[in-house]
């Protein structure tokens, strides 16, 4: 009977059919993600670093693997496509990225060769250090965004559900302007080629307009503007934070809560990175670095709350540096020098040197976000909620609803994520209720 609600409307819809993963920017992170998923499917490797594939969830008195407790899409059901400015297939892109060993790429070469990215929307004004080779052209930004929509529509013919995750380079620093405040203003701005509308925003608009959830792995101002939050809620296409929390910031969101928990004071925190991949090259431009710097600097202030603990954290000197060093490639080094003080004000120091692999850390985060955003869209209480702040665990710059205070503490973020999973499994239609962090389970 028309207009009558089905009992299934009050349940999490099953993950049936193929989940299409659409990626703007098919470079190091994207190729590492896709190659990794294929390797795991074939039993050649383990999905280490992925909460959805490796972690557990406490359900009452029992503990169950997340992928068994939660109705997530299976890795066998993932289908990949995307856009890139350099041309060539994904095997070529993966060899250029030099993240994975050649022998590992050879074992899945035919699959990677079968995926050739589509021409991308790109403007060098927003990423100064790159030159696009396969780039869309159009009358204006609205035309370009609608070309992306056409690409999405074509992919919908091959898949049952879709998500989009930005794995492109960091764009220049942009501040919110009038064009970002409402959807109507934003769409007029696309027609007028407003310079405050970047390519990543065009991808986000196109995805959300097509009802496709969107995640941002870079620190660009993108979906975290009022206009696109409005569109996200309107179309039932979830969004979340930005900038994958991988190396140095991951460590920072572990150590800072420890200092705060023990009421240890902090005078300064100096962080520097060296990396030689394309991300490092892009961030060598001051305008792109400014975007990344804003994302990385906010962490300590939010965790330590100096306004509540002025005697411990009032005068912190926090410095962040990123240095492009080509010999290091994707193997990033994050070095932290921390000046703290304890009982009676006596000084101490803590040094951390994290020799990490940038894309190896980012790829499982991208996988989890794709699976969780798809879950959110299939969950009645989450579909039209817009910002999914329970996914803060994955980001340097978490986004929250209604301009609330973001959570940066990794353990509180993990507890919130698992608490949300338990709540939607128990009652898919109920509003998410904030619970006190359960550290034992997080």
UniProtKB/TrEMBL annotation:
It holds the Pfam family Inos-1-P_synth. Residues 247-359 form the Myo-inositol-1-phosphate synthase GAPDH-like domain. It comes from the Bacteria. Coiled coil: none annotated. Belongs to the myo-inositol 1-phosphate synthase family. This is Inositol-3-phosphate synthase. The lineage of its organism: Bacteria, Pseudomonadati, Acidobacteriota, Terriglobia, Terriglobales.
């Amino acid at each position: 009977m028309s207009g009558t609600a089905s009992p299934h409307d009050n349940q999490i819809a099953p993950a049936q059919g193929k989940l299409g993963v659409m990626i703007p920017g098919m470079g190091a992170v994207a190729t590492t993600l896709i190659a990794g998923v294929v390797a795991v499917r074939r039993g050649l490797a383990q999905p280490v670093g992925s909460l959805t594939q490796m972690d557990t969830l406490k359900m009452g008195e029992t503990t169950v693997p997340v992928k068994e407790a939660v109705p997530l899409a299976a890795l066998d059901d993932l289908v990949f496509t995307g856009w890139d400015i350099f041309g060539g297939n994904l095997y070529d892109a993966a060899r250029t990225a030099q993240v994975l060993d050649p022998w590992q790429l050879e074992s899945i070469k035919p699959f990677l060769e079968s995926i050739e990215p589509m021409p991308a929307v790109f403007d060098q004004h927003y990423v100064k250090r790159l030159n696009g080779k396969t780039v869309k052209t159009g009358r204006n930004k609205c035309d370009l965004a609608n070309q992306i929509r056409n690409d999405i529509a074509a992919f919908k013919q091959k898949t049952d559900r879709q998500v989009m995750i930005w794995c492109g380079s960091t764009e220049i620093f942009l501040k919110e302007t009038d064009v970002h405040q409402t959807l109507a203003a934003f769409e007029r701005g696309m027609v007028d080629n407003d310079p405050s509308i970047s390519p990543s925003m065009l991808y986000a608009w196109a995805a959300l307009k097509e009802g496709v959830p969107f995640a941002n792995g870079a620190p660009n101002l993108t979906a975290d503007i009022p206009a696109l939050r409005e569109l996200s809620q309107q179309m039932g296409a979830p969004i979340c934070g930005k900038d994958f929390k991988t190396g140095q910031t991951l460590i920072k969101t572990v150590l800072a809560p420890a200092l705060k928990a023990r009421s240890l004071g902090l005078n300064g925190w100096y962080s520097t990175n060296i990396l030689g991949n394309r991300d490092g090259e892009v961030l060598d431009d001051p305008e792109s670095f400014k975007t990344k710097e804003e994302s990385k600097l906010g962490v300590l202030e939010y965790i330590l709350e100096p306004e509540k603990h002025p005697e411990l954290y009032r005068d912190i000197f926090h410095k962040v540096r990123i240095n492009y060093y080509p010999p290091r490639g994707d193997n990033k080094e994050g070095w932290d020098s921390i000046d703290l003080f304890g009982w009676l004000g006596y000084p101490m120091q803590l040094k951390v040197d994290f020799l990490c692999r940038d894309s190896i850390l980012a790829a499982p985060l991208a996988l989890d976000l794709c699976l969780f955003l798809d879950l959110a869209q299939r969950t009645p209480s989450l579909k039209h909620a817009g910002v999914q702040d329970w996914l803060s665990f994955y980001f340097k710059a978490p986004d929250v609803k209604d301009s609330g205070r973001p959570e940066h503490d990794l353990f509180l973020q993990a507890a919130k994520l698992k608490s949300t999973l338990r709540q939607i499994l128990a009652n898919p239609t109920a509003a998410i209720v904030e619970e006190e962090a359960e550290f034992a389970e997080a």
